[in-house]
């Protein structure tokens, strides 16, 4: 006679994400988006005031202000993700302690591992995304902003030329008069007074255009005449030309592709320059700080039920600003050669890990950890 055990009926597999995971992840994402938006608006607005000041001075075209705002948001927003995540973790878990939701979780047998699981369901993909932004998106935004700045600097002396009026440029060295300007930016019936050291020249031409040449930016006159001499003297030089060019911006005005903030990650990785190594460490520190600060935030958020939602926010601020300042100092010391490269990328992060370990010890209780190490209590 067969004695096979009966088959279990209605047995369900354990879901990949529990209700607690979904609740904490949803609250964390919502709070993170709110905190990050507020911080970005404050910081980017302050930086954008400088862009507006350059636009007023004619160094940035008015038609690219919205583009500059978007690029500023990308470049700065990436660096603001770690503090926003840190604050979001403290706020969400602090609220759960206040509402005694944590007490219910611990009473059901949950511990720090359960909370870490729910938190890092958001933090792991966010760390990868932040790393991609730090190494690729932010440098691209910096490069685009630098291009706009340089293009604006190159054309700042000629921006604002209007048909039918005299305009003074290059600190009085050039006085322009243009009869008309076509849609392709070609100036027609151009009159220019050019002042040089000890000499003056008057250029009249049928048309003129701006051209970027290997030596710099030039204004090229077509079909005209140039008269050079000193007022009051009869020694004049009269020249007729088919084309005549005047340089208005030298080669130094072109884009500096070696700018650290906009350098490609491949160039930084393959470079032996100590400054490039420090820049590579700076980019790596952004996703690393997001991960480590989240690791610190879980035990730091522990507060008494009546301690308030934001009981440890002040301590969190002190930890973040101390960590951020030490990271910048270590990068500066690496760039100056005062600190070894490996130590600059390791010491500060190791110190933050020690802080997290101390907070976890407080979270579990030092006596329990001691008894657990002796094997007198079970996990």
Briefly say what this structure is:
This protein is an alpha+beta fold and 379 residues long. The protein contains 11 helices and 6 strands.
Determine the N-to-C terminus distance.
44 Å
The total number of structural domains is: 2
Give the strand content. Answer: 15-25%
Nearest-integer average pLDDT: 79
Report the major sheet: 6 strands, antiparallel
Radius of gyration: 32 Å
Overall shape: it is elongated
**H/E element sequence:** HHHHHEEEEEEHHHHHH
- Structural class of the secondary structure composition? alpha+beta
Strand order of the largest sheet: 1-2-3-4-5-6
Number of strands: 6
Q: Tell me the helix content.
A: 55-70%
Tally of DSSP helical segments: 11
Low-confidence stretches: 251-258
Describe the structure.
With 379 residues, the protein is α+β, with helices and mostly antiparallel strands. The protein has two domains: 19-153 and 258-374, no CATH class; 166-253, no CATH class. Helices cover 55% and strands 17% of the residues. It has eleven helices and six strands. A six-stranded antiparallel sheet has the order 1-2-3-4-5-6, with no helix packed on it. A hairpin with a 5-residue loop joins strand 2 and strand 3. Helix 1 (19-56) crosses helix 2 (65-79). 27% of the residues are buried.
How would you summarize the topology of this molecule?
Elements lengths: L18 H38 L8 H15 L1 H18 L2 H7 L4 H44 L10 E4 L4 E8 L5 E10 L2 E15 L2 E14 L7 E14 L14 H6 L3 H27 L12 H24 L4 H4 L2 H18 L1 H9 L5
Antiparallel strand pairs: 1-2, 2-3, 3-4, 4-5, 5-6
Helix pairs in contact: 1-2, 1-3, 1-5, 2-5, 3-7, 3-8, 5-7, 7-8, 7-10, 10-11
């Amino acid at each position: 006679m067969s004695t096979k055990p009966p088959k279990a009926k209605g047995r369900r597999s354990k879901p990949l994400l529990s209700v607690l995971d979904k609740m904490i992840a949803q609250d964390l994402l919502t709070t993170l988006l709110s905190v990050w938006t507020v911080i970005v608006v404050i910081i980017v607005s302050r930086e954008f005031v400088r862009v507006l000041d350059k636009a007023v001075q004619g160094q940035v075209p008015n038609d690219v202000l919205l583009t500059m705002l978007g690029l500023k948001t990308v470049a700065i927003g990436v660096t603001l993700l770690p503090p926003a995540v840190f604050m979001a973790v403290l706020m969400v878990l602090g609220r759960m302690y206040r509402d005694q939701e944590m007490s219910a979780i611990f009473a059901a047998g949950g511990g720090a591992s359960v909370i870490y699981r729910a938190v890092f369901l958001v933090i792991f993909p966010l760390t990868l995304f932040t790393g991609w932004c730090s190494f690729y998106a932010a440098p691209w935004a910096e490069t685009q902003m630098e291009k706009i700045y340089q293009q604006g600097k190159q054309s700042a002396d000629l921006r604002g030329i209007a048909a039918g009026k005299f305009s003074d440029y290059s600190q009085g060295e050039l006085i322009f008069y243009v009869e008309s300007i076509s849609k392709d930016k070609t100036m027609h019936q151009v009159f220019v007074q050019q002042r040089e050291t000890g000499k003056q020249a008057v250029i009249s031409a049928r048309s003129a255009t701006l051209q970027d040449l290997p030596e710099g930016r030039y204004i090229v006159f077509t079909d005209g005449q140039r008269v050079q001499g000193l007022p009051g003297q009869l020694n004049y030089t009269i020249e007729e030309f088919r084309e005549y060019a005047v340089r208005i911006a030298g080669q130094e005005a072109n884009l500096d592709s070696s700018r650290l903030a906009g350098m490609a990650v491949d160039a930084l990785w393959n470079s032996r320059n100590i400054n490039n190594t420090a820049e590579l460490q700076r980019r790596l520190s952004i996703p690393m700080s997001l991960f480590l600060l989240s690791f610190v935030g879980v035990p730091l958020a522990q507060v008494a039920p009546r301690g308030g939602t934001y009981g440890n926010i002040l301590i969190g601020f002190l930890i973040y600003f101390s960590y951020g300042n030490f990271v910048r100092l270590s990068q500066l010391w690496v760039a100056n050669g005062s600190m070894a490269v490996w130590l600059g990328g390791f010491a500060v992060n190791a110190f933050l890990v020690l802080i997290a370990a101390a907070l976890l010890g407080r979270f579990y209780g030092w006596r329990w950890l001691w008894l657990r190490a002796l094997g007198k209590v079970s996990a």
